[in-house]
Each structure stands twice: as C-alpha cells, then as structure tokens.
Amino acid sequence: MITPGCRLIESGFLCREEIQRLNNFFADDLVLGHAAKWEARLARSESGSLSENGEEIVRGCDAEQPVGADEWDPFEKEDTAPKAMRSNDWLRKVDLQAYSNLDFIMAVHRHRFALLTKSATTSLYEIALLCAPSFLKDDSEITCATAFGLGSTRKSERLDCVCIAVGTTEGQVAFYTEKGTLLFIERFANSPILDVSFEQFNDEQQICVSTENEVFLIQPFSMVSVLTQAKTAIAMGQQNYQELSDTLEIELERIEPENGGNFGSIVITGTQKPPSFDQYVTASTQDFTRRVDRPGLPNYSTLFITRPDKYLGDFVWHETGQKSGAWGTAVNQVANKVIPHFGLRKFLGWTKDDTRKTWAIGRSKMTAYTRGILGESRVAEWLVRAPDRPLIAVVDNHARVLLIDYNSRQIVRIWKGYRDARCLFITSKQDDKTALFLVIHAPRRDLIEIWSLQNGFRVSARHVPSNSLLLDGGGEMVLGSGSAELSSTAFLFLLDGRFLSIEVPYICALVRTSHEDHDKLYLAKLSSEIFTDLPKFTSAFVELKTIRGRRELVTNLMNSMNSSTQLLQFIDALEKIDSSISINDLLIFIRRLCTDYEKLSRWTNAGRLAKRKTFLKLCPTMEFSKLLSLHIDFESAPVSSTRSSFADFLAIINAQTGSTTSQLRKLSDKELHAFAHLIFDGFMLGKQPFDELFGVLNELPFDTENLAWLLSQWWVHSSGLPTLRVIVSLILLITKFINLSPNCLETFEKALLECEKIDQSIALYAVLIMIRCNQRKEIIEELSEARIHNEVVKEAQPQDVNLFYHDAQSTIYEETDDLPPVDLEGSIEERLLKKGVADEEIEETNEWEIDMVENETVFCWLRAGHVLSLLEKLGDPIEKQSFSRLFASGMGYFTEQLAKYVLIRGENAAELVNLLEALLVNPSNAPILCELLKTLPISLEIDRIRSESTWEAMSLWIKNKQDFEYLEQFCDFLPTIECDRLRHGICRLAWDTHLGELFKETAQIFDKTGRSLKDREARKHIGITDMQLPKFLSASLLCLRELLSSVKDSPPPLQIEHEEWLKTSFTKPAINFHQITSRASLCETISRQGLVNYHLVLHHLHLAMVLRLQHEALDRCHVIRNLFCDKGQRAFFLPFTSHPLLPLAKVDETIIERRRLWIEKVSETVDEETIELARELCQEWNLGVNDVIVGVATRLLREGKDTDASREIASLTHTERMARKMCSILAARVLRLSAEKGATVQQTTERQLRSLAGDEMTRVSLEEMNVNGWEISINSLGRVAASIHLPDLIARDFKEINSICQQNFSIRFW
C-alpha cells in the first residue's frame, strides 16, 4: 500500500481582470507604509539579502546549508507552473489577512483596503469591497486589520456578517461590515494601533487591541452588543457611525505590563490558573515562612508579548474581573432599545446618560505582572499560536524557529538555519483523532518543510516558486458563538494569482519512522555480492521505501565499481524501474561521470608537435629566450605518469559533491598527483582537444580556483625537463583559468614560488610572463588566425593582458617542425660551456625589441632562476632550491648556499683558495661553479664566502654540539677573513648568539667548583663532554682574540654591494611576492654592527685564559672570582658594546699576589703546550715570568729532570721562592733515599727533614726508580742549589741537609 504524501492543491485563483483592478486601486500609494510588510522581504529575496554581519548574500550562494529536500518523500507532483503571466505589483505593497479558511481575503495598504471573496460555485476570487476610509486624515494611515464573524441572533443562522476591524496611526479602531458599512469607531490611544486580534479557546473568546505600550482586552459579548446595536441602528437609519461612536461604550480592561512598553507582537494565550510554584513565589515576596492557604485561586488572562529591542518575549498575567457582568451589560444595552420607556428603565437601573461615555483611552489602567522571560539574547520577528494546544512558534533574529510551551513557559524545540522564515500550524484529523504539524517557509531557499509535532520528524520538504507567500487560512470563529471548531490551515500564495492549499494526511504523523527503520535494517543485511549480480541489485532497490535508502544503495554501488562500463549497465537497469524517478538526478550524475572518465582516460588524437619558432616569438626579449632555452627540452616528448583508477575517480568526486570546502587539498600526495595526471595528461600530451577537456571540467564539482590549483600541483610535481609541447599547452590552460577567475593568477604565482624543481619554476615563470607581457601585433594576428566552433576570434589589442587565450591550438601545434632541431645533447656542463643555445635561430625569431620598463625586471627574475638551477646542479649537499627560499633569504642567498656546499664537503680554508685559483686557470674542471662565479662576481667574492662558511660552521655546530668538526672548521676559516669589519661581525655574531652564553655557563661552573669539570657536569650544564671542553675554550679564545685584532685600528663601516640585476630582482618584483619578507644577508647584517669595547673584550679574554689553564690544572686552585677585583667581576658577561670602567692597570696588591700564587700552582701541573698560555697571561697581567718559571722548574725537579730545571732556573731574577722549593724537594729526596735503604735515622733528624719536605714527600719521583738514582739526584740537586744565590736561612737548611747526608749516607753535595 502506498502512503499518500503531502500535497499542494490549488484552492483558488485571481483572474487577470481582478488583479488589474487591485493594481489600479493601490496605484496611488507608491510609498510603503506600516502595512507593507512583504515588500522589503521580497526585494531582499530577489536581489540577495544581508546576513547577520551585514554582508550581502546572493541567491544561490546563501549561507544556509543544503536542506536535502530530495532525501525525503516529496509532495505529490503538482503543476506549479504559472498559467498566465499576470501583474503582481499590488502584492508588493499590501498585507494579506484571511478568514474562514481563505473564503475571505483582506488586502490592506496605507490609506486603503480591499476584501476578496471566493465564489461558492468556482474557485475564482472576486473583489467584494474596495474601500478608502473617509474618516482618515491626510497624515493618518492604516496600521493593521483583521476579519472575524459576527454571530447572528437567529437560530437558523450562525453567521450574521463578516466584520473588519481596522487600526490606524491615530489610535482608533474602526469596524466595517463586508459590504463596506462603517459601524463604529473607538479611540484607544493617541499612538498607532499595533495589532487587533480575535482569539478563540475551548471555553472562551478574547479580543485584544494593542499599542506600543498598552493592551486592551475587550469583553466579547460587550463587543457583540455594540456591533449589533450599531448595525441595527444604521440599517434602520436611526443613527450614523459618529453618533453611535459617541454613545456606545465597550466593556474592556486597560492593561499596562510592569516591564514597560515598546511591544513587538502580542498573542493571547487564554485564561489560566497559577500553579503552586507561582503561589509560593508571590507569597515569598512578603514572607518566606508564610503559608499559602487559599481555597480558590482567581483566573488570569495570559499574554505572550515580544519586544524588538530587549529579548524574545515575556509572559504577562492579569487577574480577570467578574465576567458575569458582561451578560448584564449586554442585556442593559439591548433593553435600552427594546423595552418601552415610562421611567421604568431608569427606576430599574437599566439606563444611563449617553453623554457620559468613557472612551477606551480614558479608562483606568491596571498593572499586569510578568511570570517569565525567554531568550534575553534573541529578538522575535514572527510568531503564531497553535489552535488547540498550548504552543507558540517564534522566528527570531538568529535564524531559528522556536517552539514554546506557554503553560510551562519553556522552549521545547529549536530549528536552526531559517533566516527570514515564516511558520504556521496545520491540523489534520482522522475520525476523532487530531494531529498537529508545523509548516516552515524558508524564502531564502524557496523551501517549505512540514514537521510533525507528535514525534518531531520532518514529514515532507519541497522547493516552491520564488517570492511565494505563506498565508494563514483563518479560522471559522464567530464573535459571540463558541461552537467553532479549533483548527488551522495554511495556504501558499503564488505571484501569478494562485492560492495553493497545503494538505497533510493524518497518517504522516505515524508512518515516518517505520520506513526509515525498514531501509536501515534492510541495507545492513545486504552483502557485497549484490554489486556484481544485476538481478539481485535491482530486487534490492525495489524493496527500499525511502529516497535516502535508494540513494545510499546507489552510492555503495558507485564505491564498489572499478569499471565505468559495468556501472553503466547497472544504471541502465535502474532507469527501467518506476521508483528510480525519485533519484533520477543521481543517475544522470553517475552517467555523466562515466562519460567524463572515458574522455579523460581514452584519448582519440595521436598528438601534435609544437612550433618552436612561434613559441620563441612569445618571449619578450632575445636574452630572455636564450636563457629560457637552457631549461626546455625542444625534442623529447612528455611522458605520462600513473593516473587515478575509475574507483579512485568516483571516490574523489563523491567526497567533493555536497561539500562546501575543497576536498582536493585533503588528498594524500599520491592520490592528488594521480588525479591531476588523469585530468590533464591528455591535453598536456597533445592528445585531447581543448574544448573537450573544458567540457569535462565544467561538469566536475570543482570551482575554477580549485582546478587551477590542481593544474599547478600537476606542474610542480612533474618529472624531467619541461618540454615545449607541455609548455604551450600550459599557456592555453592558464590563460583560460585566468580569464574565468582572475584569482587563479595568484594560485600559479604561489606555485611558482614554492616549487622545488627549479626547471619547472623557470618554465612556469616564463609562461606567466608570456601571458602578461605585451607582444607585437603581427604575432597576435598569427596566433589568432584559427577558428573554433565556426567563430572568428576577435583581433587582440597590444595592451590586452589576457591576449593569448584564443581557443586556437592549431596555430601553435603543427604536424612537422619547420626549423632544424636545437642541439641540446650532452651534460649540463657541456651545455653551459657553449656560447649560446642556437643563437642564430633565436636571433632570427626575435627580430624585434619592445621598449618596456619591466623587460629588465623580467630578465633579472629569469636570471635569478637560472642561478638557482646552477646551484641545484651542484648536487649534494645542496638542498632543493625554490624562489620562495631565495626571496625569503635575501640577496645573500647564493653566497650562503655556496658556503654550505664548500663547508659540508669538508674543504678547509686553504683548499677553498686553491679551488678558486684553479678555476681561474682551467674553468672546465668545475664548469657549474665557474659559471656561478662569473654570474655573481661581487656576491661570491672570496672574503664573503669565507665569512658565510665561518658562520655556517658555527650554526652547524650549535645544531649538533657533539660534532666538533664544525667548530674546528669555524676556527680554521675565521682567521682567513681579511676584512676586519667582516671578521669583527662574524666574531661578535657568534659570541652574542652562541658562544657567549655557553662561555658564561662554563665560567660559573668553574668558579663554583674551583677545578676542571667532570664529564657529568660538562654534559649537564654545557651540553658537551669534558674531553671536548678544551676545544670549546680554545674556540672562545680565538673568537675573543680576533675581536681584539679586528677593532684595534677602528675599521670604517663596510658597504655591501651586489650585482645590479640581483638588486633589480628584489626591488622590482615581476610577480606577487605573496607577502614574503626578505631578510638581510649575513654580510649586510654584520657590517652594520657597532664596534665592541676593546677593554671589555680584553677582560673576557683574560677570563678565557684563566678557564683554559684551570681546566688543564690537576689540583684544586683558587676560586676564579678571587683573581679579579670587584669592579672587574661586575663587568663580566656584559654586552660587548657597553662601556664599563675596567681596572686593568690598577689592581690591588692582594689580587696581584693571588694571581702570582695561582699562576705558580697552574704552572706546576700543566704540560709544555699550555705553559705558553700561562706566560701570555702573565704578560697580560703585568706579572713577569718568574712565577711561571718557578712553577715549571718545580714540576721538573719533582719529575727528577734536574738538568732541564737548571736551565729554567738560570733565567730567574728572584731566587728566594725557588730556593725554598728546592730545599723542600731535597729533603723529600733524602727521606725517599732513607726509606729505600732502610737506614735508621734519629727521630729528631727525621722530624727536621719531614718539616722541610712538607707535601713534596709524595710528589717527588725519578726517571729510574733505584737507590743509586736517589743518591745521584741528591748530588745533582745540591749542585743546582749551589749555583744560585741562596738567602742565609735557606743556605743554613741546605748545610744541615748536607751534614745529615754525609753522616748517614756518606753523600756530600755542598
């Protein structure tokens, strides 16, 4: 059984004559007033509208997401095409209101209103009333209107007449009959009437008149009485509307909400009793402990009021009066006219003085209290009340539809993405059951959706004609009669004059979930075997009940197919099934994809050759064509790469379809390259026509900019040298893309900058220049001779930017070449050694020269690319080159790259000089390097290469501190820099960025420990081992020494120069840099540095020497800070450009003595290589060399090298300290001799010897450890001591030792 769907049924229409009459009637009111609510919306829907941030949204490109209307069961097919073109100007000016299920339609605009009635026999609407109220003043207008039925006093008829209530800007409400008779006017305020509404509930009726600040609730039976009296009096000719308005009085309540005025819309929500919670809230305002004890609570009239400037709306409650008085008032007014008058009526109290009427504006105000506020961040734009349930639908300014339960004052559901929407409720009945639906009309998407409020599902969605209006049919409510059925209908009004009724069967509220569940379970049970068996697949398709399920099954079929032919067989079988009409668009889309894949994968043409002569004419200058020819392969044919399979092609298309973001950029490199080769290989190889390729591209779900990006990726990742055929094809494609979207130029420029294959970058750059540059008119005419699709290409002008796109491939391609081939065989070295590539041919094709300012820039860019290609051809360890790296690194990029090449190859400074000198003699040894030096003679000057190599070595060492080979290269290249300014800059840059901080850490650790570092300490604090620490300290010493030597003579500032063509490339870019910021070159940076403070550097040099000596010393020495005065210590580690006061010459005697002792101790332990550093430090400290000599001589004597020690002692000027050392060593040797012989020495003698020896007892040693050696050493040391001048006290000790030796060992040395 097929479930009937929602339908649009034509219920009536306006003929052309009636529409013209309405046009003529409203023709005088050309300016929109308060009642023309639709015109602004219609104007926005036609020309685009504004989003929340004020940006214009064009139709078809709305910010709203796709609604997926085709995924749901659609309305039954109805013919919504207009029957005839009718004028609709009047519709743009009026506000439409309906009554009695669209039997009556009222159109209101400014000073006029019209009433349309539906024929009882036909569906034609006729104009029953055209009225221009006479009581309106010139500056007064109609603000609102409503229609309702007036109950009849006859039992046989329920409806007496249709009344029309019209509100004005002067605060009046006028009541008309459907015949146009004005019955009564009541003044409610001095401000405009906001709305007049008539609502009916199960047990009551309410009439509400609202202004911007007040609400008037009219007693319905009082209104019936007044209108009945007025209608009877006017019909009998007794009184007119003015007299009746002055005498008849309406019973009403004038309400002023406590939250103030400025209302938007007001909806009456009926009479309610407060819940217990509200009772306690009211009581708590007086006393929280107060008990609420009321046997009966009063009824409250409730309203929902929206406010356009504060929040969504608030719920207002007002305690009603005694409604029984309404019947008394009605009887009183009727009796005044019916019962004869002999004074009895006055006696009974049934009459009153007519002159004492109190107008509504003069009634006393009563305050209504707010029971809740909703949506403080939202503002309501539209609201409607459900007829039989406590629900309100509100459209807010955040493009949301809110469903509100006004009994609980809660939002029960929110729909998002419906800007400027309108909504209505529809009731559907079956027997005694009623279902409620919500109709949402989204005018920006021309969409109507129907939602079931029983289970929350969307039961239908359909696109409708543009500028359609959603109308409430109006209930059949009759004032004074409560027997009307509470229902609601909705209609769609088209601009051609037709009214379509929206009908929703009751069953739509019940069957939606079962169909979806059925398809979901059925699809889960299916296996992959059905995608290879056509009968099983068609059977499964027939079993599905929803469009979503059918789409999912066909989509799974697409994902499982590897052949377009097999997929077409399944599509042919599906098209024969009746239910496939619901997914016909998907089947057409799949068929089109299969056809497109066949065109892309199976080429028909055999290929064409490109005209070299015509191509070379596109080059702007002769030099440009010569240099470009080095990077183009004129002979070889391009080779195709791996392309996407059919399954991969469908997967990419499916991912992009329906997506708002580009899925191409999310593909892996392998998938992207394969897809790009599938799309462009046929045309690039010359085997696919141009119009066929773009016919396929137009059907793919990718925009022009994404396709241009895909082409750029195809180009930058292509392998091999660019061929002439591919370049010519590229010219046509890029020009076409730029013509379609100028933003594509930026895509190709960005690809040019980032491409790491420099030959492809150069060729792409040349293509962009050829497209952009102005060319000779003869060439333009030559390229424009061909005709495509029998259309002559218009002659391009010389100043036309996009002059090369002419759809004329046949003029650039030919079957045979009319020029001899260019000899480009051999290696790159052989090609570079030639004077030029086919110079005669290029000169022949470039007979002209164009006087253009940018020609110089164009060639400079190409030359820069050529130099990048030379760097790339050097091979390892040169990294991949690109224009972006070049222009980000600045004009020093080439010097930097060559320095890396020299450094990483392991060549030292001497080898670099030898290499450069050899190139001057024989360039063929390294042609690429020789070509680089010739092209950049200034930038690649030898001293700049040395500077770059020095800095690069330091940078590489910092990246890997364990590889001290780079630090050794730094020390090797640094002294070879001849320019003092460059050497100073390199040293300062190395110290400020790398060496200085490490040197500071080292000094602090040395100062803390007072000794050389252990391996663990060095790794933790400095990041190097203890074995590598001497190399680091030596590099620091060298850096500081070079700093001193470079600033000794105050070198002048250095001006860094570059080649003129290189400057032009950076100052006058030929393409967009895409905000690439070039940094200054190394030489430019270091040349601008200020000179260092000589004395501050010298102070740090002294500290470096101390650290170096401290590391070599084996014993614990003085704390380093004690070797410098307080002022000197504060100057450590300051920036070298500061100027502290350093006491280098004036040092305290205490510090000098500490230095002497420290030098002496260090000299006793260090080796011969380090002793020279100690001597240098002594000279820097002005200490002389005595301390060093004492330390060296002491070390030699301890080792038993008396002869070497005597030579050192001979240069001493003061011998007292040396004599004491010798006396101690001599006593130690005597004790060692006594121990070796086992001789017994008197205790007093032994104590005397030990006192003289001190610590030397454990330090002395001999080269030959035997007894005879000790005896010889004692004699030897004695002779050395006898050769120098000894103080008396020390001489006496020597004599005592001599006597001890003579007495105990028979040795006499004195």
Distance between the termini: 139 Å
Q: Report the sheet-strand fraction.
A: 15-25%
Could you give a short account of the major beta sheet? 8 strands, mixed
Query: How would you classify the helix and strand content by structural class?
Result: alpha+beta
The count of DSSP E runs of length 2 or more, i.e. the number of strands, is 35
Q: In which order are the strands of the major sheet placed?
A: 4-5-6-7-1-31-30-28
Average pLDDT rating? 76
Counting H and I runs of at least 4 residues, what is the number of helices? 46
Q: What is the CA-based Rg, rounded?
A: 52 Å
- Name the poorly predicted regions: 30-86, 322-330, 337-344, 774-853
Helix content: 40-55%
Q: Which overall shape is indicated by the principal axes computed on the Cα atoms? A: elongated
Protein name: Rab3 GTPase-activating protein non-catalytic subunit
Domain Rab3GAP regulatory subunit C-terminal: 928-1230
Organism: Mesorhabditis belari
Subcellular location: Cytoplasm
Word description of this protein:
The protein is 43% helix and 16% strand. An eight-stranded mixed β-sheet has the order 4-5-6-7-1-31-30-28. β8 and β9 form a beta hairpin. α9 packs across α11, α12 packs antiparallel against α17 and α30 runs antiparallel to α31. The longest helix has 30 residues. GO terms for molecular function: GTPase activator activity. Belongs to the Rab3-GAP regulatory subunit family. Keywords: Cytoplasm, GTPase activation. InterPro entries: Rab3GAP2, RAB3GAP2_C, RAB3GAP_N.
